[in-house]
Here is the input.
Amino acid sequence: MCAYVIEGGRKLSGSVAVHGAKNSVLPILAACLLAPGTCVIENCPRLSDVEASLAILRRLGCRAERQGEAVVVDATAPTGWEVPDRLMREMRSSVIFLGAILGRMGQAKLCAPGGCELGPRPIDLHLGAIRTLGGRVKELGGCLTCSGRLQGTDLVLSLPSVGATENAMLAAVCAQGTTTITNAAREPEIVDLQGFLQAMGARVQGAGSSVITIEGGHPLHGCTYAVMGDRIVAATYLSAAAAAGGSVEVTGVDWRTLSTVTAVLKEAGCQVRSGRDQIWLQTDGPLKGVRPIRTAPYPGFPTDAQAPVMAALAGGSGCTVFVENMFDSRYRHVDELIRMGADIRVEGRVAVVYGVSPLHGASVVASDLRGGAALVVAALGARGESTVTGLHHMDRGYQSLEDDLHALGASIRRVENLKKS
Ligand code: EPZ
Here is the structure.
């Protein structure tokens, strides 16, 4: 069994560069399908979710291969429009391919992604957007069959869903006529996707605001594009520095994309300074409790940072209330933090964290991507040794978690065959 073995209590120091953003590169890889040409995606992170996306592109008849820190996708002549169940199960966010496949191929077939560790992951907004654009969608036995020529129109999302916004953008690029998406998600990753689509020759405007306008039907071509830095990886590393103490600089990320997170860490007693594409954090005392943290669509506090920040505060002093508004089951890391001595009470969407400084090492199990990263954050600040298993969750979204933290002075190593205790 693969595990991290972490000896906590060591301060972190130094500088770490974050890799390209997982939640930006996944829709961008799907968007590569739209252009009859070759796209070079620079700063493409080495993640299992990226490998899953490349496998889907190859299955659709594209050439997709890694070249150093870039990935090259040639979608000159795709031949397929079906994403097999096996690949859908490997990565539930594969639903992001729906709009691109339908737009390029005129038909699409994939299995509904189903739920995940965060709870049910409905796609009704995705399907509603495709139908409003003129796509015929049949749902049978968990399989989705879509077809039809897409027509530009005015779309309204009942929720600013990130994935539904991205699917609608990719489908609308191929639709005839103009599409507006109202109540669009405003995440920085949507702005990055717009930048990529514009580099392909698509007419897309408004990303980052609640109304995005797409003039469909324009000819598209291959391009070269560098993916933005991963703001959640940056938030994770800053949470680790806050938990362990020390002085750390995180580079390669726009500080404005995680200002709600740095504001919380500042309120907890950390010194935080930001530059054009770097953030510096220093702390040497236990973190204080902060005002309630409510997760929300961007520019609110990101749900993906809830677990790492909670892990840092759980090892501090003082009380913090969390309200998780985005997903039904995003407190699965709490029981594992309690095994490390944390004092956290969960009631529905609310988690009340009473800081215990310091936490103590324990054997804990990751059950989702950001919850697993949170256990690493807590272990770095705890006294004694921790083992963290379930690393396949972290491998989905962190390119080199153990190497980066080790370079900052953490005592962390990846053990391939930890004996079951
Ligand atoms: C994206 O997921 C991210 N994933 C998630 O990051 C992130 O937590 C989430 O956005 C919110 O920021 C990727 O980008 C690959 P949503 P997505 O659609 O698109 C409900 C990580 O850790 N909803 O904005 O699935 C949904 O149930 C991952 O990197 C519907 O009801 O999120 C949720 O409650 C985890 N119907 C809310 O909207 C729909 O059709 C927000 O979901 C779609 C969503």
